Amino acid sequence: MENRTISINFSITGISKTNSRDYIEALKIYNMVTPREIKTDSNEITKMLENEEKEDFKVLGFILKYSDKVSGLAILSYLEDSKSILIEYIAIENSIRNNVSFLTYLNLLQTFISELPLDVAYWIVEISNKDNGKNVDKESRFFRKLLYLENFGELKALYHTLQIGFDNFESSFEAKLYIQADDNVPTLSRQTYIQIVKSVYSYSVEWFKIFNSDNLSNKFEEKTAKNLIEIEKSTKNNPKVHIEYSNYGSLKNKDYSENTSKLLPSEENISNKKIFLFVIMGLTIGVGLIFGMNKLLDYLGIKMSEINSIVGSVLTIIFAPIVSILIGKSKNKL
Prior knowledge:
Low-confidence stretches: 323-334
Order of helices and strands: EEHHEEEHEHHEEEHHEHEHH
Radius of gyration: 28 Å
CATH architecture of the largest domain: 3-Layer(aba) Sandwich
Shape: elongated
CATH superfamily of the largest domain: Gcn5-related N-acetyltransferase (GNAT)
CATH class of the largest domain: Alpha Beta
Helix content: 40-55%
CATH topology of the largest domain: Aminopeptidase
Keywords: Membrane, Transmembrane, Transmembrane helix
């Protein structure tokens, strides 16, 4: 078997500047892969990442990379009232959008958050449940299929998403909240569930107010209040909200029809034998160039010693990039 190494490398970087080339590329991927019915205006995301003056919530952005190339964008929000991290988007470029990349990025995000000075009790995700889970966007199907592997459970209670922006009328629909809690607790108290819903709704209202007129914001707030009253009434007789830790929803609604286990593109590192051959070829070409140059200079009556510095510079310019590429390819990326 040929001596070779295949490697993959995932990484995430917290967004500190929204004018960087990496952020712009990540935002392009987000715009390309995110379905309309769950998509937030990318200009709003950028402004929220730039705005640090918020008391009750904090928007956190991350550039996703695969083999040192930008591969997506993740947006999380910390909700102070319920001490929750709301996963808004993990938008992954289509060529690497599979089980491994999603779960790896999720793990990296959770590790990153665990090292911040934030008191986090729950991780939560809104998952579409249109037509009892049958008419669901591709990203929600993707999340629903894989979240149970990370011990997220479905909160078995009424929930509605709120409209995203003033004109995205398809973004408000029946949904489910999925939650990751310590020790896979089988239930939450009704009060805790209502507190979580209120924190998500309050955050959404504050976001909406920043980008819309007072008139539109008042209507949005009224609609939000009606949703909350409906949820409170539906849970009134249940002191506990059950959490279902299974992939039953994915099986029932045939999420497995979408292939999410495709192979990742890999970087194949060049073998030591090939590196040796390249070095020999480089040396041979270099010696040949020097010999030919010497002959040409003799013919022109120029002494090599008079232009040593020029020749050295030219050879450095020619061979430095080649050597860098070979050395780079010989490194193992784990």
